[in-house]
Specification:
about 140 residues; mainly beta; OB fold (Dihydrolipoamide Acetyltransferase, E2P); 2 domains; 5-stranded antiparallel β-sheet; 4-stranded antiparallel β-sheet; globular
Length: about 140
C-alpha cells in the first residue's frame, strides 16, 4: 500500500513498539537515502510537489478526454453486487452520468458509486475486493 501511494516514509509508534517503512524515493535533508545494502548516499535535490492535477487528461490516440472516477470514501472496492453476479462495468462499456459503476463497503454498509460523466470505460484501476482510500482513482472514462 505504501508503494501504491505517494508516501515515501510511514512511521507507526505505540509505546515501546515502532515500525518504520521507507520507499526507495525516501529523502532526508536533500540526500537520497538508499537501502541499507547500498554503500553510499548520493546528494540529490528534493523535488517540489507536483502541481494539483485536473481530473481529466487528453487520451493520446483519440484526442478525447479521460476523466477519473474516484472513490468518495474509504472502504473495500467491489466490481459486482455479489460474488455470483456480473460486474457493473467492464472496459469498453458505455456509462452515463448517474449509472452505478461499483460498490464500496465501509463499516458493513454497501455504497453504490455512480459515474459523474457519460462516456466509455477505458480502464479499471483497482482490483476487485481491494481496499481503497478517499479520492483514489477507480476507473478511467473516455468522454
Amino acid at each position: 500500500m505504501v508503494n501504491k501511494s505517494n508516501l515515501t516514509e510511514f512511521k507507526l509508534k505505540d509505546k515501546d513498539f515502532e515500525v518504520v517503512i521507507r520507499t526507495k524515493q525516501y529523502t532526508k535533508g536533500g540526500e537520497v537515502v538508499l537501502a541499507p545494502s547500498a554503500p553510499v548516499a548520493v546528494p540529490a535535490p528534493v523535488a517540489a510537489p507536483a502541481p494539483p492535477q485536473n481530473n481529466d487528461t487528453v487520451a493520446p490516440a483519440t484526442g478525447k478526454r479521460l476523466v477519473e472516477i474516484k472513490s468518495p470514501i474509504v472502504g473495500t472496492f467491489y466490481r459486482s453486487p455479489g460474488p455470483d453476479k456480473p460486474v457493473f462495468v467492464k472496459v469498453g462499456d458505455s456509462v452515463s452520468a448517474g449509472s452505478v459503476v461499483c460498490i464500496i463497503e465501509a463499516m458493513k454498509l454497501f455504497n453504490e458509486i455512480e459515474s459523474d460523466v457519460t462516456g466509455t470505460i477505458v480502464k479499471v484501476v483497482v482490483e476487485d475486493a481491494s481496499p481503497v482510500e478517499y479520492d483514489q482513482v477507480l476507473f478511467l472514462v473516455e468522454v
